[in-house]
Amino acid sequence: MNPHTCLLRNPPKDLACPRYGLSHIRPYRINRVQRRINCKTEREHRREVSPLKEHPEKKADRQPVEIGSIWEAKERIASHILQTPLLLSPALSEHTGGPVYLKLENLQPTGAFKIRGAANKILSLSPERQKRGVTTFSTGNHGLAVSYMARRFGIPAVVCVSRRVPPEKTDPIRRMGAKLVVHGNGQDDAESQCHRLEWEEGLTLIRPFDDPEVIAGQGTIGLELLEQVPDLGTVIVPLSGGGLFSGIGLAVKSNRPDARMIGVSMEHSAVMHQSLLQGKPVTLQEQDTLADSLLGGIGLENRYTFSMVRRWADETRLVSEKEIAEGMSWMFHQHKMVVEGAAATGLGALLSGRVRSGSQPVVVTISGCNVDPSVLLKAIDAGA
Ligand SMILES: Cc1ncc(COP(=O)(O)O)c(C=O)c1O
């Protein structure tokens, strides 16, 4: 019998362990009984089968994200992203009674701001890690951004998504040449699949939001805003895992502590909003929403974004499905632009009066445009 594949139903009697009576056998098929018998934790076992000797994100690396890393990110990603324009919206300004600007991240090459964080993370990896490949889990836009950057640099990429992610987002991921793994009914299922690949194949995990380089990449939007609107009053940011909010919040508040930062999520499954109310990360069941990109948890062991959002948010607000549709419809009719539900949450909040503007300029982050045309047409109808 090969001791490496032994299931320990009839363990040899001569292998004695001081604690459990057995030792030396190193089964590669692990279950609870085997673990107890062999005095081995699951983590120890994983180390043995994983090509990685130790987990890439050691505790010691968990320094708070600093404003300096956003400046570094700005330089690092400059040639890969668009410094997006800021558009004054006369119609919204009239509606709210104060100047309202739109930060057009929908114009990025992948149709969403996510390229900033993905680019900064991938470009920060060692050549060895890049060569080995990357993996990620996503509600779509981050997966697309990772695939785009991976293709530019010839890096193998595996993107894990749940069945909820629409073809509008999964098709381009495939077209970019990334391997797509569809697993489970929610972002958390996709995440567990991704962790498996990280451990077993040694791929580097590019987290969608809870990562210092990703946060710093998204924060470059904040630096651009400070240059574009020197008397910035309020920034409205769609809020899910909080990478976008944390980055912009750090950049803006470090320079203009009086500016208001407002996070907006949909009423259905607003995990960060609930977590802030309860004072700790919580989980919620995912429900259908027009703002599908904002679905997904923040991780019960959230490392950065929960505390950063808690620190920088002056308010968080929820908007209804009707208000999201109104935001999409407004962008289409007033600015002749297509935006996805997640990106329309801030507009919905302003149009409905859930967020009030003052005399100082308000910026609404238009975070993306990747939406299924049939969903867009329905939303335009519903929100008209
Ligand atoms: C278009 C769009 N807007 C906003 C967000 C929220 O970003 P974050 O998860 O960093 O809060 C996402 C996240 O996927 C998104 O795709």
UniProtKB/TrEMBL annotation:
Keyword annotations of the record: Lyase, Pyridoxal phosphate
Domain Tryptophan synthase beta chain-like PALP: start-end pairs: 78-368
GO molecular function, one term: pyridoxal phosphate binding
Pfam families linked: PALP
Source organism superkingdom: Bacteria
EC number: 4.3.1.19
GO biological process, one term: L-serine catabolic process
Cofactor: pyridoxal 5'-phosphate
Function: Catalyzes the anaerobic formation of alpha-ketobutyrate and ammonia from threonine in a two-step reaction. The first step involved a dehydration of threonine and a production of enamine intermediates (aminocrotonate), which tautomerizes to its imine form (iminobutyrate). Both intermediates are unstable and short-lived. The second step is the nonenzymatic hydrolysis of the enamine/imine intermediates to form 2-ketobutyrate and free ammonia. In the low water environment of the cell, the second step is accelerated by RidA.
UniProt xrefs under NCBIfam families: PRK07476.1
Protein family (similarity comment): Belongs to the serine/threonine dehydratase family.
Stated name of the protein: threonine ammonia-lyase
Source species taxonomy: Bacteria, Bacillati, Bacillota, Bacilli, Bacillales
